[in-house]
Amino acid sequence: MGQAIYHWLDERLGLEELKAFAQHKTVPVHAHSFWYYWGGISLLFFLVQVFTGILLLVYYRPGADSYESVRQITYQVNFGWLIRAAHSWAANLMVFAVFVHMFSVFFMKAYRKPRELGWLSGMVLLLIAMLFGFSGYLLPMDDLAYFATKVGLEIPASMPIIGGALADLVRGGPEVNEFTVQRFFALHVVVLPLIFVPILAFHLWLVQKHGNAWPPSEEAKPAAERKTMPFFPNFVWKDLAMWLIALNVLAVLASMFPWDLGKQADPLAPAPLGIHPEWYFMSSFQMLKMMGNWFPGAAGEALGISIFTLGLILWTLIPFYDPDSKSGRRARRAHYFGLFACVVLIVTTAVGYWAVR
Description:
Cytochrome Bc1 Complex, Chain C
C-alpha cells in the first residue's frame, strides 16, 4: 500500500525528480562547514514561533484587555506559560541565529556573484525579523513592555523631517496606548507574515538554486582537493540533528527561565529604572545616546541616525563592492569593514547594557 501511495503521488508531484535533485546536490565539507547550519536553525525558530503564535492567538485579546488576556494565558491556561515562554525565547533565538548566519555569510564571501539576491533578500528578512520582535514585545502591555516600546520608538522619532510623523503613525497618536497595541498586533500577525513568507520562500529557492558557497580559503584549492557530501541524506540528517539540539536549548530556556509578566502598564507611573529596548536594538539606541551626549540637541540625534543608516546601506550593498574573487584590495577592505561592524555592534551593545545597570 505504501508503494502504491508513493507511486500515486510521484505521478502527480514528481517525487522521483525531487529525490534525484536532492541526491545530486552536494554541500561543501571543510573546517567552516558548521556555519552552514545556522540558516536552517533560523528557519526552525521561525516555525516554532508560527506554531506557538497560533496557540497564543486562541486566547489573546488585543486592545484594552491585552494585559488581562496575557495574564490568563500565563497563570490560568494549562501550559500557557510554557507556550508563551517558548514563543518569546524562540523570537530572541531566531534573531540571534539570523545575526550569526549573516556574519558567517559575510566572512565566507557567500554574497558574491551569483548570490547577490540571496544576500539582499536575507537582509530584508533580518530587518523584518527585528520588526517581528519589536511589534510582539508590546503585546503583553505590562510596564516593561510599555516603557521599552516608548524608548524604542525614540529611534524612528529622532529621524529628521519624517521621524515624528512616522512615530505617530506607528503609535496611532502621540502616546503608546491600546490603539498602539492593536496596530502592533495587526503588524505582528498579518502584515509582517504576508511580507516575510514570500521573501523567505524566494530566499530558500535561491539557496537551493546556487547551493552553499565555498569560503575563499577553500575556493583557492584545486577542485580535486575539495570535499563534498550529498545534500540528501547526509547533510539533511546533520541539519536535523542541529534542529534537535536547538529544540533542546529552547526547551531548557523556556522551562527553566519562563517569560515574566510584570505589572499592568500605567502611563502615569514613572518609568522603571534601567529601561531599555530589546538587545538587538541596543546598539542603535546606544549610538543615539552617545551622539546626543557629544552633540546635544537634534543635531546629535540626526547624526546618530545618519551614521547608523549609512552603515546599514554600505553593509547591504557589499556584494556590489566585492563582487567576485578578483576583487583584490576591495575584498580585504570588505573583510576589515565586517570586522569593524562586528566589533562596533558588540561593544555598543555591551556599553548600552552597562549604562543601564
